[in-house]
# Entry
Amino acid sequence: DSGVTQTPKHLITATGQRVTLRCSPRSGDLSVYWYQQSLDQGLQFLIQYYNGEERAKGNILERFSAQQFPDLHSELNLSSLELGDSALYFCASSVAGSRGTEAFFGQGTRLTVV
Amino acid sequence: AQKITQTQPGMFVQEKEAVTLDCTYDTSDQSYGLFWYKQPSSGEMIFLIYQGSYDEQNATEGRYSLNFQKARKSANLVISASQLGDSAMYFCAMRFQGAQKLVFGQGTRLTINP
# Structure
């Protein structure tokens, strides 16, 4: 158990819909990262939050947004869903700012858009 | 460009044999971190081992060791005495200087045969 909790584990929804994925980081970790894993793109970094502030942005679509709340949990919002958004979405957390800190991953949310 | 390359899409190994999974990287940074993750068929990403670019000793974690050759820009994962439960996808990842996100290789699917 990595200590990073993601909910839900599975999500099936229709095109055009909006979903919210939730992540609780490990106790003490201030940084949260979101990654998308798809068959064609592999593992891609989406966005990072550190202590409530957006720190870095990767290949995140405009239809996607995220936030980190005062209790440090994070949510990834995906809207106007398309078939191509079907993927495994991971949240990871680490103690940002320290060189050599591991990034621990949650179990992922498998999103299927039908 | 900062890139991670795993040249072995798949490997088949007999149980109890040692196995080496290749990873090369491309960066001009002096400070960076190298990670290996295991992804079993259930989907979760499991952190295995970390090597910092300034670490003089190769990292070891139980049956896992990292063969770090800085001049060659390679960070191969060695699994000793392989077990059936080692069958999984293995990803090499890198955290580049000044960045917190991880950049992943394409992965190697390891199959351990009884």
User: Anything to note?
Assistant: The interface with chain A takes residues 31, 33, 35, 37, 43-47, 50, 52, 91, 93, 95, 99-104, 106-107 of chain B (CB under 8 Å). The two ends of chain B are 41 Å apart (CA to CA). The longest strand of chain B covers residues 88-95. Chain B has a mean pLDDT of 93.
